[in-house]
Amino acid sequence: MPEMGNSLRAAALLAFVVLSILVSLLISSVQQFGVSHFSNATLAVDEQEFASLRGALIYQLNERRKEIIPLLLPDGDDDDDDDENGLSEGTRLSPQLYSPLDYNLWNEITNGSRKAHMDEMGCESLVDMQAMEVLGSGYTKLVVKVNLAGGQPVALKLVNEQGIDMSKCLEDFKDPQGCRELVSYKLKKEIVLLQRLQHPNVIKLKGHCAGDARGQGGRGAERGRVTVILEQGNPLQMIQLLQSPWEDRFRVCLDLVRLLHFLSQSPLGSVALLDFQPRQFVTVSGELKLTDLDDASAEETPCQTDADCTLQFPHRNFTLPCSYRGVCEGLNEKRNIYNAYRYFFTYLLPHQAPPGLTHLVDHIMNSTGELKADINQTLEAFEHILLLYKSGLHLDNLPPSIIRDYTVMRGMGTSGNVEYSCWPSYSQQGCVLSVHSAREAAYICNSHSQCNSFTLTGQKTWTGRLLASFRSSFSHLVPDGTSEVYVKKTKAPETSTV
Ligand SMILES: Nc1ncnc2c1ncn2[C@@H]1O[C@H](COP(=O)(O)OP(=O)(O)OP(=O)(O)O)[C@@H](O)[C@H]1O
Ligand SMILES: *[C@@H]1O[C@H](CO)[C@@H](O)[C@H](O)[C@H]1NC(C)=O
Ligand SMILES: *[C@@H]1O[C@H](CO)[C@@H](O)[C@H](O)[C@H]1NC(C)=O
Ligand SMILES: *[C@@H]1O[C@H](CO)[C@@H](O)[C@H](O)[C@H]1NC(C)=O
Ligand SMILES: *[C@@H]1O[C@H](CO)[C@@H](O)[C@H](O)[C@H]1NC(C)=O
Ligand SMILES: *[C@@H]1O[C@H](CO)[C@@H](O)[C@H](O)[C@H]1NC(C)=O
């Protein structure tokens, strides 16, 4: 009951927050217009200024539009045609010049409510939705956790009215409506990229709505407003991740490498993530997904000599080869690898790696930190570790005899446990770790002075390893079809069996 009260209160709070944002927006736009009627003298000046600001804003809008057009090109001809030249001709840049399919996509994003595919959500999906809380916000976007009318949880991305992008634009152009439209281009670009770059480690686009949430497409005050409907995730919390088992941290790194492998040969070419930070990612059931794509770029860097191909990082510079085509070879791929190394691997990978795997982890750390390996080799090294870890091959040197120190009782669980804690445990109470087999669990129990028995619970981690719970003692055995209890023989524990 109190939980329900809380979520109601949270919903009310959010409604209030959203409302106050809207109200403050309204007030500021009224003020914006009010100012220009202030006096006769300023009016003329303002009109002139307004015209030139308007011109500059329109220029910016066109620039943003141009950024998106190349992304609408059909797959596979990003190699030899020179987009740059094609676009700078000052033509109308109508996507109509390109394939009809892509023109549809453009209309779709611009006027909105029509569905692109049978399974895609549009504005009508947002009717009677329930906003739960703010999931996150950044320079450009606000992300809200929402339950749709049918109960389906989604995340909605909107323009962040309080964000840096919006306030900078307002400062420059003093046109809330135009600025919203300008900032919305980042959402539009993201929609196109999400459609083009579909992968298990990219957040799933469920649909979008142009215009207001209930609206019939972009009109009047709602022109240019875009809402993106996404699969709901949990923002990546580095601090929390640092405290979780190696297996989960390895998963995040592996998912990242799989993503970068895909991006290096994506339908758009080799894509670099220019703003590469943990906050651009979320997890969905433990799986890493990229959610912020507006800073993804498939552009290649032109060069004359190798010296034109430097990658600069705060503590490290690299020089890459300039290819015969006159572009820096593998620059986007290498930029991603080094960023993965400096933002993810250094924090998540080496710490508490399983003893049998440390040499392989160290090798990955060195080859990515020195940019000696390409993404294919890096992925191979990660998949190799996964294979060893899953199959328990890294445990080959554990003596098979250690399991003989224990008496096993199948189909049993325990009650009246005396727990101890260990780190990093899968459970807050007690010591729960993942193991490959009873043998590995016995090995761990032997190494914990408080441990006298353990249970293989039948639950599994994402790699298929078993969850084992270790304890000092227990008072009763209870029937439990899925689990097995192992009790140390040598130090007879004070237990009474049923
Ligand atoms: N699908 C999602 N599920 C849950 N949280 C999300 C989702 N998408 C984004 N977020 C959260 O919202 C935050 C802001 O989203 P996003 O990064 O797209 O906005 P931004 O304005 O581009 O941010 P930045 O200034 O970091 O570039 C993210 O950092 C993330 O924590
Ligand atoms: C106000 O502007 C009008 C026309 O724009 C002009 O005729 C009038 O003299 C101006 N008044 C003052 C006080 O500047
Ligand atoms: C969207 O707008 C374009 C012109 O901007 C128009 O040609 C097209 O028919 C519109 N599509 C829909 C579905 O309204
Ligand atoms: C990287 O290159 C820049 C520009 O040439 C230079 O200023 C900087 O000191 C270099 N950094 C390192 C760590 O070598
Ligand atoms: C990689 O290994 C070499 C040789 O052992 C060492 O000098 C270098 O610092 C290592 N680099 C990284 C990034 O770990
Ligand atoms: C990397 O692997 C892909 C297939 O996954 C292959 O097409 C590509 O040629 C490989 N690249 C290199 C440089 O080996």
Automatic annotation (TrEMBL):
Keyword Signal recorded: yes
Record field: catalytic activity: L-tyrosyl-[protein] + ATP = O-phospho-L-tyrosyl-[protein] + ADP + H(+)
Domain Protein kinase per the UniProt entry, residue ranges: 129-498
Biased amino acid composition, Acidic residues: 75-86
Cell compartment(s), UniProt: Golgi apparatus; Secreted
EC class of the enzyme, as a word: transferase
Record-annotated membrane-spanning stretches: none
Biological-process GO terms, alphabetical: cell differentiation; ossification; protein transport; skeletal system development
Alphabetized InterPro entries for the sequence: Kinase-like_dom_sf, PKDCC, Prot_kinase_dom
Assigned keywords, A-Z: ATP-binding, Developmental protein, Differentiation, Glycoprotein, Golgi apparatus, Kinase, Nucleotide-binding, Osteogenesis, Phosphoprotein, Protein transport, Secreted, Signal, Transferase, Transport, Tyrosine-protein kinase
One annotated Gene Ontology cellular component of this protein: Golgi apparatus
Region annotated Disordered, chain positions: 72-95
One MF annotation (Gene Ontology) recorded for this entry: ATP binding
PANTHER family documented for this protein: PROTEIN KINASE DOMAIN-CONTAINING PROTEIN
Name of the featured protein: Extracellular tyrosine-protein kinase PKDCC
The species this protein was found in: Seriola dumerili
Lineage: Eukaryota, Metazoa, Chordata, Craniata, Vertebrata
